[in-house]
Amino acid sequence: MHILLVVPRYSANWGEFYQIPLGLGYIASAMKQAGHKVTSLNLNHYHGTVKDLVAAKVAEVDPDACATGSLAPFLSALRSIFTAARQAKPGIVNIAGGGLVSGEPEMSLRVLDIDVGVVGEGEQTIAELLDYLEKSKDLHDVNGIVFRDRDGKIVQTPPRPQVHDLGQIAWPDYELLECDKNISNQRALDNYFFHSHPESRPRDIDMITSRSCPYSCTFCFHPVGKVYRERPLDDFFAELDMVVARYQINMVALIDELFSLRQQRLLEFCERIKPYKLKWMVQLHVSSAKDETLKAMYEAGCAYISYGIESMSETVLESMKKKTKPDRIAAALALTYKHHIGIQGNLLFGDKAETLKTANESMHWWAFNRRYLINLTPLMVFPGSPDYYEALKDGLIVDREAYVADIPARLNISKMNDKNLEMMGFQIWVFHTTLLNLAPLKSFKLSATQVEGRDSTYDILWDCPRCTHQNDYMGVILPPDQSYSLRLTCRNCLSRWDIQNKAYNSHTDISSATSRTSFRRYRKLVVALIEKIKQRKYRDITNKVLALVLSFIPARLRKGELYHQVTPPEHVLRSFGAAVGRDPFNPEKHNDFADSLVDVGAFGAARMHYQQALALKPDDERALTGIAHIDGTGVNDEQRATYFVSWSDDPPPARRERTETFHLMPHIKNHA
Asked: How many C-beta atoms surround the C-beta of residue 428 within 10 A?
């Protein structure tokens, strides 16, 4: 058969960095190894709409099948590919794979215009599937797929056993993925790992040394199965030799779900990769962070370790089945920091055991460990994860098809009510966006040489407060989601710092002529709304209107000043939180938000923002007074450890009684 393999378009901005979908590379090799012809189309490298590009390629090569795959967040990208392929050739066989299909096989057929979905590890399945399609044999006999039978009924066959010897799997077809274009286009700010290249010239490729993960974290989903398998290191280094020679890479990102559990294997890896003089990164469990191991990793070129932190509440860690404790996490981070290896990690808020108490425990740890710059983010419930199936059983997800088609940013599976979770999410956004580890900026200017077809390049010079190293980020392109600050890595000690983004211009800057015009335009409306507020009317609609409409942001700031004394604390906090979110280098905005946090009893959160005001202006009297109040006898230790407070006495979302029966689609038995 002739298969058109399409790499989805991952960014709306042409030319922007994207992570090579290694899984598609493995599938391409498997199809070619089975004797099939494979033509590729990487949508990230060509101008034009997805519809036009796919249609043109189908017309050019006339494939029998169109294949692609990805994770659930990229569903719309896959949908556009399959729709375009079907319109270009109605009889084409559309085949999808990846985490999207494996997480919800039945729903993938409902939300995508596909004929067959490959479930789980795909190399053996795709080879057998294509053989059956080519010979018009009965698909019921192919394990590891989902499809519609002749009556239109969705059928999922039994799962295919996972490949235990990863050394027998063909290496990814990097050429079909057009990896050379991806590598040549990389810039230092495209990815935090790329920061570590000393000359701002990363040439990175992704590789794996294992598959799956031995842990069963409740928020996580393993697209290639639940059995953890390690790849023979001889096979890995043979592939590494090939990509170094072909692509002249100077960095390698090991994207295993979990790099290694066995210390001896990790030490052997360090010994073998050291002569390559590459920068590399891995994902590790904190139990692997031992002094000897980290020393060997640093000496072998390891620039970053991504740890699965997720929470600093023991209650939540147990609920997530993380198999670790807060003190073990803290020890691992301290050791990694000591050995000058960069740290990447997240605190997730909203687990099914999450309460205000547990959330405050995590935030209290974060407040005193900001040097690690651990990300703060709400927990998302992804199809295929244990959390997802629990939510289905509990009736928290009512329409599975609608959920898969548009995964919400937040589904409340916690022990908190919706209002408290919503307000916690807002505060997390403010904390993450505005509480910065500031580094002194020496120079920020346009580069002498620009890159044709890309956004402007800049030369950024700054000094590391930890080790005093001068970092020269030359010829860098700012990320498409840039904001008021840039988070960069010191290339000497590999700690992370925030600098002011001098190139960022907010279209709603109140000092600009355009914004002053907008402000005058809406001032009458705002004053009228304030009058209604004073009369205790329209508070909810006022806040929603001013929060959602971008043009009202200047008015929103004014509103915060005008009705501080007459409106509910929630609305004051939201107003000042939004204000500091769009002006995080203004100490007065931090003081305003801190005052509103004090008003509601979130003293720990207030202290962080007073501290940020002092970092921006060391002699700020208002911030000094605020901290003195919090540290004084009028505030106790429990209050100082409070970051989130209750806004409502409503109960958490109601859960379905577990006595009710819940059904997932069963696998059919093979006909044989």
From this structure: 21
